[in-house]
Amino acid sequence: MGATLRRIQLGNALAAFGSGFTVPYLFIYVANVRDLGASTAGAVLAAFAAAALFVLPLVGRVIDRRGPMPVALGGAAAASAGALAFGMVGSAPYVLAASALMGAGVAVLQPALATMIVRCSTASNRSRAFATQFFLINMGMGVGGLLGGLIVDEHRAGTFTTLFCVESVMFLVLGAVLLTVKLPEAQGVDAAVPDGSGQQDGGWRRLLQHRAMVLLCVLGFVLFFTCYGQFESGLPAYGVEVTGISTATLGFALFANTAVIALAQFVVLRLVEGRRRSRVIALVGLIWMVAWLAAGLSGMIPHLQAVATALLISTYALFGLGEAMLSPTVAPLVADLAPSRMVGRYNSAFALAKQLGVAVGPAVGGLMAAQGAYVAYIVLLVGCSLGVTALALWLGRHLTAEQDAPRRSLLVSSGDGPGQGPDAGPRSGAAAQPQAEPKTGQLATAG
């Protein structure tokens, strides 16, 4: 990977490092430190998600028209301002406004940075670029969370202000890094489409007519509902209330998730390169099915607490293995499906599907936990995991060889593959990309 790509990935890792300082403590900060109550804390998290859901359908077109750089800079500025305000304000309306501003900024960054990766990678190295960014984001958030836990004190509001100031500065660092790079010129129709271009009309309709992309968005929703959407509510509640683990053990389980990602990411990358992406995603569904079955079993043997605890920790570890398998497959697939003039909108559409999964997941998990419906909860998530496998195999039937296994296809032929669905134009993974590894490059997102 080029030096510029590495530089931007470093900036993104530092931004993730800043987010790691605050993400685990948002609820506690609002509910207890600012003494605004649990209901306000819940509303703050909802405002964060709602702002993201509002901006994501709009930002894709802006990226395609103006390019990803100004959008990413605007997102970094908004996220920085929101984080700073979060640490300074103390009343409910202002905290809600700060949360919405930060949520919108972080959401805008996701498709913009993902589009930069597409601009600065080729079909042969894109999987590694996305896997590297996922690894760095997880490491940044993990280290940030660890250091934040050493600094924060629930009885001293100033320590939380320090955390939010660090996060704000790190978003500014990301913006500063972006200002130092020069993205490769987009070639052909991959260039930003001018305002008023007829090619913009019906862009979202074309995306919705693209069966493979629609299936991938549905798959993305189920993936994020099944895994990330349960990390904040359903799974922790199940672990504490049913398995009987302590909150300290829950923290160790989260560490196990991050550790597996860190240790397995590049080993997994070597194993999945050249494999069919749809088959890799289908395997993730089976791995997560085993993870949820392990969680279910942990709640059935309270008399064997050590075994139950090990089973629940293995659930988090298996999630990490699945995440490591998804990072070099799903995001590059979005790029390879996109017509080159619509890369921004495809990335925004997939980010919207992910955000919906992350928003709906905690609501469903929290509701079922509140009702004590833990058996139904495990059955639902096992079914969702099997749904991931079924959707991935169905998706594979709608992918070309170049889209499903690009590295294998490059070994067979150096020619570009045919288009897919109603999008007959050049693909972002083919004609729109430089054939040599770019000298200047780009980066990726939180998510």
Description:
With 447 residues, the chain is mainly alpha-helical. It folds into two domains: 1-186 and 432-447, Growth Hormone, Chain: A (Up-down Bundle); 202-426, Growth Hormone, Chain: A (Up-down Bundle), CATH 1.20.1250.20. It contains 18 helices and no strands. It has helices at 3-22, 26-33, 37-66, 68-88, 92-119, 126-151, 157-179, 203-209, 211-226, 234-243, 247-272, 277-298, 305-326, 330-337, 343-370, 374-396, 401-404, 406-412. Helix 2 packs across helix 3, helix 4 packs antiparallel against helix 5 (92-119) and helix 10 runs parallel beside helix 15 (343-370). The two termini are 21 Å apart. Mean pLDDT is 82; it is low at 187-201 and 413-447. It holds the Pfam family MFS_1. It comes from Streptomyces gossypii. The chain crosses the membrane at residues 12-30, 36-59, 71-89, 95-118, 130-152, 158-181, 212-231, 243-268, 280-301, 307-334, 346-368, 374-395. This is MFS transporter. It is found in: Cell membrane.
